[in-house]
From TrEMBL:
Residues 11-75 form the RNA polymerase sigma-70 region domain. Coiled coil: none annotated. It comes from the Bacteria. NCBIfam families: sigma70-ECF. This is RNA polymerase subunit sigma-70. Interacts transiently with the RNA polymerase catalytic core formed by RpoA, RpoB, RpoC and RpoZ (2 alpha, 1 beta, 1 beta' and 1 omega subunit) to form the RNA polymerase holoenzyme that can initiate transcription. PANTHER family: ECF RNA POLYMERASE SIGMA FACTOR SIGI-RELATED, SIGMA 19 FACTOR. GO terms for molecular function: DNA binding; sigma factor activity. InterPro entries: ECF_Sigma-70_Domain (IPR052704), NTF2-like_dom_sf (IPR032710), RNA_pol_sigma-70_dom (IPR014284), RNA_pol_sigma70_r2 (IPR007627), RNA_pol_sigma70_r4_t2 (IPR013249), RNA_pol_sigma_r2 (IPR013325), RNA_pol_sigma_r3/r4-like (IPR013324), WH-like_DNA-bd_sf (IPR036388). It comes from Paenibacillus contaminans. It holds the Pfam family Sigma70_r4_2.
Length: 292
């Protein structure tokens, strides 16, 4: 076996970890694969005789690549003032497998991916490496070019965004949040399975849905039967999350936010649902992950 082949074989033993890191940083399977490939190219051009910990070296490299990609993405978004959420949904023309990416997004957590996308590049990289992959701030410092003190502040700020500041105190007790989550999770499961009777049972008979995607005259749907018919067989890319401190739902195909649902629950039944897809309205919502 040649030296190059041996290096390639060693690299492959780290590929799955590198892809896991890159996907959580970038939220895109195709971009994560690009970042991992770039880390291989950099390794193949490097004298490896001084690399004592190949896994650590590769994690550092792929993290730096991801940080650069996130900064470039942020710059492009700031330059494109007309960008809207639906237009940011990626097509499948990037060569990635939509089914594979959907499964990956669900395994990581749709809500987590959506909330991570609200962090700035340094916050996201720091949170992913420290809170998800348990790297020390001393290891992260050379990746970001920031001091350990600054990284602690970044991680704390990111953690508050991900977990939601004071969620339980704003929306009631944790037990109330848990009960409401059970109700909404059951609603989502029934919608996904097309279980019409269970859907109707989860809804107040006079439930109201307000959907901002529809024309003004058709924005409101009233009644449990009508709403159950509308959502039955759907919700494949939906997951519970904290929305303004209360249990809500985010719909995020392949981890890309499409709309948010806010709920009003009365007497254990869903009484009101607000579907929000307008980017300006979504930007004013405080989205967080419940139970992290």
């Amino acid at each position: 076996m040649s030296e190059h082949e041996n290096l390639a074989e060693r690299f492959e033993t780290h590929r799955s970890h590198l892809q896991a890191v890159a996907y959580r940083m970038l939220g895109s399977l195709s971009e994560a694969e690009d970042a991992v490939q770039e880390s291989w190219l950099r390794l193949s051009r490097t004298d490896t005789s001084d690399i004592g910990n190949l896994g650590g070296w590769l994690t550092t490299v792929v993290s730096r690549v991801c940080l650069d990609m996130l900064r470039s993405r942020k710059s492009r978004r700031e330059e494109s003032l007309e960008t809207t959420l639906p237009e940011r949904l990626e097509s499948y023309k990037d060569g990635s497998d939509p089914e594979e990416e959907a499964l990956l997004a669900e395994s990581v957590g749709l809500a987590l991916l959506v909330v991570l996308d609200t962090l700035n590049p340094a916050e996201r990289v720091t949170f992913v490496l420290h809170d998800i992959f348990a790297m020390s701030f001393s290891e992260i410092a050379p990746i970001t070019g920031k001091s350990e003190t600054a990284l602690r502040q970044l991680a704390s700020r990111a953690r508050r965004r991900v977990q939601g500041p004071g969620a339980a105190s704003e929306a009631g007790s944790t037990s109330e949040l848990t009960r409401n989550r059970e109700i909404i999770d059951a609603f989502l499961a029934a919608a996904h399975a097309g279980d019409f009777d269970t859907l109707v049972a989860a809804l107040d008979p006079d439930v109201v849905l307000r959907d901002d995607r529809q024309p003004e005259a058709a924005r409101v749907t009233r009644g449990a039967i009508a709403l159950a018919k509308q959502v039955s067989g759907r919700a494949q890319a939906a997951q519970t999350a904290l929305v303004n401190g209360a249990i809500g739902v985010i719909a995020a195909p392949r981890g890309k936010l499409a709309y948010v649902l806010q709920f009003t629950i009365r007497n254990g039944k869903i009484a009101e649902v607000d579907l929000i897809s307008d980017p300006a309205r979504i930007s004013r919502l405080d989205l967080a992950v419940f139970g992290v």
